[in-house]
Amino acid sequence: MDDLTSFGSLALREPTVDDLKRHFAIFGDPEVSAHAPSGPVRDKSDSRRMLQTIKDHWWKFGFGNWAVSTLENRDYVIGFGGLAYRQINGKERFNLRFRLAREAWGKGYAQELGQASFHAAFHLLDADAVHAIVRPDNQRIIQELAQLSMRQTETVKIVPDAPPSLVYSITADEAGAAGV
After folding, report:
1. How is residue 128 annotated by DSSP?
2. 168 and 152 in contact (C-beta within 8 Å)?
3. pLDDT in tens, 23-37
4. What CATH topology corresponds to 6-178?
5. Residue 48 C-beta-side C-alpha neighbours within 13 Å
């Protein structure tokens, strides 16, 4: 996915170890990670492990979650997200995931990142569908997914002693018809 380095107002690139400080600032923010099953990351070693997992996915598959910045300021990462394979109810699927810094909220970046991910999935990776997992109480992200024309298709049990997470999906045909 090196072909896709920008989309709309966003600059997209493979994360590096130099992103550790921003990763920890974003994933360690209690408000940003309020709906994450594991909560905010505790320290930079957690962030380092997460970044290594992203890098390993890139190495193995040639795509993965991006470090996201704006075209205006490519040196300042506002979030991480994109596509990665994930097991959902026993099937390996393209999973859309994103986490943006609070200062990036409300600016349309989640929509652009979702659209960039759909472009990559359906035009570069020949995916049939893209899925996203969201906690049922995360209304802000549920609204973002609905604006991306994704719809809830199933549930998945991820968090013990908690309600199942919701799985949202969109097929290539649905994305084309919706213009996303």
Report:
1. S
2. yes
3. 999 999 999 998 887
4. Aminopeptidase (3.40.630)
5. 3
